[in-house]
Amino acid sequence: MRVAGLGCKLALCIVSLCVLGSFLSEGGVNRRTDLRHPFSHDIPKPYAYRWLPRAAVSCAIRLVPEPAETALARWAHGHPQVAKLCDRFGWDAARLSDLLATSAVLLIALLGFAVAIAHLVGQLYITSPQIRLAASFGAVAALPMMFGYMSYVYDLPYLALYTAALGLRAARRWLGYSLFLAMNTLTKETALLLILVFALHYYRSLPRKLFAALLAAQLVIYISLTALVRLFFHSNPGQPLEFHLGHNLTMPPFAWGNAMAFGVLAVAVLRDWHEKPAFLRHGVWSLVPLLAMCFFWGLLDEYRDYYEVYAIVFLLVFHAAVRCVRCPNFRARAADSTHRYPGVSW
Fold first, then answer.
1. Which end of the chain has fewer surrounding CB within 10 Å, N or C?
2. How far apart are the C-alpha atoms of 142 and 97, rounded to whole Å?
3. Nearest CA to 41 among 298, 226, 191, 229?
4. Which of 200, 344, 190, 161 is nearest to 278 (CA)?
5. Has residue 337 been placed in a domain?
6. Residue 339 lies in a domain
């Protein structure tokens, strides 16, 4: 059993590497700046505000010794296939060490996302480690459907942090959740959706005083950190918001294939709706303000803008899929129960 478990984890790492390759090659990674300087005042807004993943990548890059950087650059120039691969990913072969360091951070984020999905499933369902592992595999393997246009270096870290926050909130580990809310706030402004869905889900299930205290604490964290970040980067070029209303109004209609795929997705999400955990049913409502924001300040057909609901929608579909195969060891926990266990048991 231990050997089988190690094999499954190795397989998950291989799948994550394949997904990372797709992430880097599908449109490349729009860095918008030299990742060695995450706090530069030349970074355009609103990307300047999303500094936490940039800082992590910068630390990883600086950990590479200078002789190793030079040796890697020479090796890349001496091997045309490596230089061609760097070019495909939109990187200068002379900065191969930067690509490897960035890839390491993004791979850690992908694996962290897999662990966060498993943890979230464990909080919402009474099920086996195999089902949790299957959910991790499925969630990671389905990610390339979200890639397109131009990816950003903060995308995968944000997905991992946001999903981890959902799991901690489901477990009612408020201190850990508050910490991850802070990290999400320093990664992307749409972390506000965590607070909105918290209010929707826990308004009736928590004692009023505890609910009010937790809501106030979250608002203080989000508002104070957002204000500090915007104050620090106030002199950076660009606007705090990018308006894309023109694109969305003139966007051609979706192809029939895409329309059919959305229809199948909607059926899977709605199937056995009242049997699915209230946590997920309430969480999917974050899609409403997310679509409204994307209509004005995002691209409706850029799926990376919907990472906030990715884990929620995936688990709603996963629930329907597991029910279709009639897996006996899979049922939703009672609405007010949580499952606390150290780490993640695969």
1. N
2. 28
3. 229
4. 200
5. no
6. no
Question: Nearest Cα to 132, choosing from 336, 284, 341, 335?
Answer: 341
Number of domain units in the chain: 1
Domain that holds residue 70: 7-332
Residue 218, classed as helix, strand or coil, is helix
Rounded Cα distance, 153 and 150, in Å: 10
Two structure tokens written together for 180: 């991850």
- For the stretch 116-141, pLDDT in tens is 999 999 999 999 898 999 999 999 99
In a domain, 227, yes or no: yes
The rounded distance, in Å, linking the Cα atoms of 330 and 346 is 15
Predicted confidence (pLDDT) per residue in 194-252, tens digit = 999 999 999 988 999 999 999 999 999 999 999 999 999 999 998 888 887 887 788 77
Residue 338 lies in a domain: no
> What one-letter code names the amino acid at 188?
K
Both structure tokens of 300: 């409706």
Angle between helices 192-202 and 174-185 (to 10 degrees): 150
CB-facing half-sphere around the CA of 312: CA atoms within 13 A: 24
